[in-house]
Fold these 2 entries.
Entry 1:
Amino acid sequence: MQDEWLAGFVVYAGRRGSLHIGDRIKEVAFRCGVKVPIKIVKKIVCQLVLTLLRSVQPLVKVRIGSLYNYGRIGHLAANTELYLRRRSRSKETEKEWHVFVTGQPANRQLLTMIKRRVTVIENSFCLRLCDYVQARHPDAEFWIELPLNGNEYDEFNNIPPQLAFTEDEESRGQELLARMGILPGTPFVCFHARDKAYLDAVHGTQSRGQWAYHDYRDCDILNYLPAAEYLASLGLFAVRMGYAVERKLPDGNPRIIDYATCHRSDFGDIYLSTKCKFFLGSEGGLGCVPWSFNVPVAYANGAPPIGAAAWRHTDVFIPKKLWSRERKRFLTFREIMAVGADRWFWSQQYTAAGLEVVENTPEEILALAKEMNERLDDSWVSTEEDEELQQRYRALIPPGHRCYGFPSRVGAEFLRKNRELLE
């Protein structure tokens, strides 16, 4: 300890600057009297944790992980659901004890349902300790990873959902619907458009620059209103979802309910998203909730274009388009892949390339909603032309691409109106 103190003193004392020698001594003393002991204690605790975990392995195979990106509902839902579905298939993990740690979750109801399927410790100290030990010993045999690439089509199409509501929760859900004016058995559709308000609300103490890189995923809720009006005209209710939103919906149609501003709760976010006829979504995390419960999703404003696709065979999706300022036209899907824009997840990448990410029009979203509703009602009629355009789109995706082999469909009307993108 004395040698380390002296070495630290030599380094600090040798710095150039205007600090008085007494201030330098105080700085070194703080470092060696506080930071060094803390570092030593951390190393000791780290070794104790590793020793404890390895000592119990002959008795019970313990596996530990943290719920991936638990502060975002999309990851909390999809990454965890993927893990649960894969584990339900694995006989090797049946005899293992899996334990997860987490901090404050994006959605309390979702975490409650996850806790019914796997052991979860919600404690900030345990979370930091787990992250610290794993970061220094990443190859230890007992860590659990929760990956999600977005192309796990087999799991999301062939394994049933792993989370479910209790009888009491079902009763609460029916009470919520009654308060919203939706009678028992009346079908409803949830719709949602990602905007800046959510991250501005949950990260209000930080700079927008820390998350503005995802602004290319945003879209305007007003572009979804024609679709909502259409669904309402059929006798359905259209329920606008969202945690924090930029604007309220205009008043008028009693069958269009602005749940986000009038009824919103953690429980309602999950219950409504998983009990609707289908979910008309956007590039936002909430859309992962219906996917996790096998609810059909009409996915609008997919971004990056041709780099995102819906997960299940019941789904229909349409992507955003990329306008080239230099060429004065939209890039074709081949051109998008040629420049690598199908793998861009930063707004700055599009800006630097002179590209503008253009969201879907109200007409495109309306056509998507019509197609999804008719498909679910078994009244949709697909033409030979539609199937040809569908196959042309699929043929553009090379093996190994994230979207290769996706089971869902691109919106028929979108392909009819944008044939030039298939060239």
Entry 2:
Amino acid sequence: MIAKTATNPLDRIRMLSQTGEHGVTSSSTGELRAKPTTWQLYKSIIQREGVIGLWAGNGANLLRVFPSKSIVFSTNDLYSRQLGAIFYYGSDEKYQNSGRTLPWSLSFLAGGMAGMTASALTYPLDLARGRIAGKVAGIEGKKAYRGIIQTVIVTAREEGPMAIYKGISPTLLGSMPYEGIKFGTVAILERTFPIEKLDADDGTGSSSVANNVTRKSLFGGTGGVMATMITYPNDTVRRFLQLQGSRGTAEHFDGYWDCVKKTYAKYGIERFYRGSLINIVRMAPNTAIQFGSYELLTQLTKGYF
């Protein structure tokens, strides 16, 4: 939650770049700009929504990310133990006592399954957050969507109950490689740079904890950047699907591949990567904080659970 709040302004600008619902127009023609700069997007948000607009959707994001990341990390641990037991030791207890880490292939599989589990269970929250943050207010300052509950209710009422699951297919498809690459990259780095080479414990345990947290933060940040670079086009498609049928959006797609074909035909391959650079800048600290915080809390609560 701390990571998401700290990087929400970058995330808001990234999502407006993806969706094109930014309200930045050309001063000469008055038409919507196809590729506004980061500074133009920033000014558009400030002018129409004020400074608080940079955190639009953050409340919905926090409501989404708390259960989502809890499920991702806990089910990843669960799936990792089960896969380790199945493929190596025959039982969960033997695997845990071995002290070994999974190879990257099984870490990829465990992370991917964890990502799909979390996405399936928390998707309506993700859709609400996408609609709130993916649109800028009108010139008069009126917002199409104002809160997570209001967004879910309005969406279901105006577009039907199943509308709260628009875009779930690319989300599930994307969460498998995204979380898989993230956890798989961390596994590769952990095996390449084992903790024995980094530890310099002073006898109190504090140095060991600090090393573990720093190590996991660096590995997590690297994993997040790798996952983002590879899966970003799929994320753009799912944002388009989430916004179709919403207030002020006229475009309609008949499913995932129709969205891909129409977007490519109209804009070219570049359209799928719009906003990717600022997203990479955002993801490095975001995932570093996630993995570092998780490792710190795990170390501090040992013996309590």
